[in-house]
Amino acid sequence: MSEKQKMAEDIVNRVVKNVNAKSTVLAKWGKSWQMYFTDINVGYILKMDMDGKVEKIDKADKKGTAAVTMIFDTPDTLVKMMDKKLNNMAAMSTGKCKVEGPIPELMKISTAMS
Asked: How many angstroms separate the CA atoms of 104 and 10, rounded?
């Protein structure tokens, strides 16, 4: 496993911990969402249960058909965003982060992640 793949798995685990701690934000949503890292061509699809917790994580080598997909240039970009060292809008305007899916659903996920 490369250093970047390890970083991706670590940040996904951190996201899962944050999301599960704020399960009321995504309660009754019950959909899947994905974080995809273009530099290592790896994505993680998180399936939510109806209680707002991560029920299952699937690793994928391409973008999936999740309700929302967040595409990052590197795992480090997501780390910086979560550590508040990189503003979400700056990341999006510079192409470091892209989003596919409805904005209201993205906002719920972003709230749960932070």
From this structure: 27
